[in-house]
């Protein structure tokens, strides 16, 4: 039997009347004793250590791989074997959130996607954190927890909540603390990751659509398209097709050159059923329903990427993935950590002509820019290092979303949680 299997019971749940341990002293004791498989010091100074971080849907995943998460769940009283149902994702999320809130600790390396040895490496940033306080020994107030235990629970709750009421004025649903005399908290929000709304199929993303004829902006509209959108050249298009149709304007008013007007009209007429764009889970897909050829690329908000060429042609009557939220969020985390460039979120489409590779894009007849505004919000939030006050809230710009107020650390933790959720979903689909 693996070492971790023998230590699960000995990891110890918090018994009645026992004060809840602080996570850093508790973790230090596990590291020093070597009680959990894969949880070990990496240097002689005992400052850097590793924690196994395997996804639960991997075929080689075993209960022992989650030993540290279950041990903390038991030690903190969040899980009692034999009474509570095992919940591996919640154990991992709670453990990570507890570590992320500690200033004396930082994530050094994230190797959770390593196919052979998935793990994360943490480091104590100062010697004082390595020799931090022992277990809380303040007197108990009742059999469910001590005074300091209650205070830590409240602080953890306040760190995770967004104190913003719902648009209709209702207080969000929440689960009260298990206290004999609970302390009232004003309008606490659910601890569920608010960014997961981005993956809910019923939620509609907002899109900003801008059209250019020979570099001149001729159209802009922001919509919540039910079932996606379709760029069409005539209002008389097929109304039976799915998605909200967006009719590109006739060039009569916007262009003066009669020859160019004629060419633009030919492009618009060949759109037929339109160029369709819709969301499928964490991805955006495109399909061309008419004869008009279309090429696409990710670019900056102000101009397309003409230097590196297009990403491909939008094929006729065949779905094509043009955006994946997973890599975007991963790049966003790297950007926040200072190890990467800001990810792109703007889709550019060139209609009726080849992509302007190393050519001025303003010479193309019809170019369309589509921005999923929720992605713009995510990047702006990363750049501003969070919206941490009630006066500085953000809206995800998806249907039924509510204003968020997050610190930079909370935002990063939610992004990491979102990446793991998308990885789990991808594993299920595979």
Describe the 3D structure:
One of its GO terms (molecular function) is identical protein binding. Residues 106-123 have a biased composition (Basic and acidic residues). Residues 106-150 are annotated as: Disordered. By secondary structure, the chain is α+β, with helices and mostly antiparallel strands. It has two domains: 3-160, Winged helix-like DNA-binding domain superfamily/Winged helix DNA-binding domain (Arc Repressor Mutant, subunit A); 203-380, Tumour Suppressor Smad4 (Sandwich), CATH 2.60.200. The chain is built from ten helices and 19 strands. A hairpin with a 6-residue loop joins strand 1 and strand 2. Residues 1-11, 132-191 and 387-391 have low confidence and may be disordered.
* Distance linking N and C termini: 30 Å
The total count of strands amounts to: 19
What is the helix tally? 10
The unreliable regions are 1-11, 132-191, 387-391
Largest sheet: 6 strands, antiparallel
How do you describe this structure in short?
With 430 residues, this protein is α+β, with helices and mostly antiparallel strands. The chain is built from 10 helices and 19 strands. This is Interferon regulatory factor 3.
């Amino acid at each position: 039997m693996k070492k971790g299997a023998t230590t699960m019971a000995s990891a110890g749940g918090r018994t009645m009347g026992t004060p809840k341990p602080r996570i850093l002293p508790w973790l230090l004791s596990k590291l020093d004793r070597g009680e959990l498989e894969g949880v070990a010091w990496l240097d002689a100074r005992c400052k850097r250590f590793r924690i196994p971080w395997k996804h639960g849907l991997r075929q080689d995943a075993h209960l022992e791989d989650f030993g540290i998460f279950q041990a903390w769940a038991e030690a903190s009283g969040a899980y009692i074997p034999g009474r509570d149902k095992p919940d591996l994702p919640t154990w991992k999320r709670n453990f990570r959130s507890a570590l992320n809130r500690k200033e004396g600790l930082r994530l050094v390396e994230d190797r959770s996607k390593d196919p052979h040895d998935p793990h994360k490496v943490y480091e104590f940033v100062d010697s004082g954190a390595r020799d931090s306080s022992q277990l809380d020994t303040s007197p108990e107030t009742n059999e469910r927890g001590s005074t300091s235990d209650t205070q830590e629970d409240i602080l953890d709750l306040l760190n995770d909540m967004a104190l913003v009421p719902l648009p209709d004025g209702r207080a969000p649903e929440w689960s009260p603390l298990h206290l004999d005399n609970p302390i009232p908290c004003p309008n606490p929000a659910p601890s569920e990751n608010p960014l997961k709304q981005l993956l809910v199929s019923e939620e509609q993303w907002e899109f900003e659509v801008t059209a250019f004829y020979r570099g001149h902006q001729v159209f802009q509209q922001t919509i919540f398209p039910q079932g996606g959108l379709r760029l069409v050249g005539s209002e008389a298009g097929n109304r039976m097709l799915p998605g909200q149709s967006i009719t590109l304007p006739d060039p009569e008013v916007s262009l003066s050159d009669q020859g160019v007007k004629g060419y633009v009209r030919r492009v618009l007429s060949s759109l037929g059923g339109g160029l369709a764009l819709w969301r499928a889970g964490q991805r955006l897909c495109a399909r061309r329903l008419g004869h008009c050829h279309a090429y696409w690329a990710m670019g900056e908000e102000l101009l397309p990427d003409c230097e590196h060429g297009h990403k491909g042609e939008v094929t006729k009557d065949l779905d094509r993935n043009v955006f994946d939220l997973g890599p975007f969020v991963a790049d966003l985390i790297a950007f926040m950590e200072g190890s990467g460039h800001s990810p792109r979120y703007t889709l550019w489409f060139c209609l009726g002509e080849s992509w302007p590779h190393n050519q001025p894009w303003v010479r193309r007849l019809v170019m369309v820019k589509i921005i999923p505004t929720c992605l713009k919000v995510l990047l702006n939030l990363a750049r501003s290092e969070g919206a941490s006050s009630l006066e500085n809230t953000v809206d995800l710009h998806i249907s039924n979303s509510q204003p968020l107020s997050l610190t930079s650390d909370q935002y990063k933790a939610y992004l990491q949680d979102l990446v793991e959720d998308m990885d789990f979903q991808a594993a299920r689909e595979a």
